[in-house]
Amino acid sequence: MPKKILIIDDDIDLVEAMRLTLENAGFEVIDAQDGEKGLEKALKEKPDLIILDVMMGTQDEGFHVAYQMRQDEDLQSIPIIMLTAVGQETGFKFDKEKDEDFLPVDEFMEKPVDPQKLVERIKVNLGM
Q: Are 9 and 55 in contact (CB under 8 A)?
């Protein structure tokens, strides 16, 4: 049975590009275009991994969604890869090693995302 990936991102073009890449790599892909729908889908579908955008309806919607997931007993152990263009837009860089105490995610990737690197990071986070 293929591993299920939930993509939560409001950029439908990016979602479809990631869907093609991930399905070609053997994953099942589901998606949601905002944080609220993403939380609902995560609870209903129980994905194996979540790809979450930072900036959707608000500049930090992704962080709020990730914090909610980390506080939910059914979702807290699901790996989250956060995609962000924050570095491009603000110059701010996230460092998982230095910032891990307040970051509720397993990994950060800057947009635009290299498709092969994304597949590689997903496999690492899923222990494949």
A: no
- Write down how long the chain is: 128
Cβ–Cβ < 8 Å for 35, 82:
no
User: First and final CA of the chain: distance in angstroms?
Assistant: 14
pLDDT per position in the chain (128 positions), as tens?
A: 899 999 999 999 999 999 999 999 999 999 999 999 999 999 999 999 999 998 888 888 888 999 999 999 999 999 999 988 754 444 444 555 544 445 678 888 888 889 999 999 999 999 99
**Which residue, 125, 10, 21, is CA-closest to 62?**
10
Q: Which two tokens stand for residue 38?
A: 């993403």
Measure the CA–CA gap between 94 and 80, rounded to whole angstroms. Answer: 15
Residue 121 to residue 128: CA distance in whole angstroms: 10
Q: Give the span between the Cα atoms of 19 and 35, in whole angstroms.
A: 18
Task: Give the containing element (helix H, strand E) for 44.
Answer: helix 35-45
Provide the 8-state DSSP code for 17: H
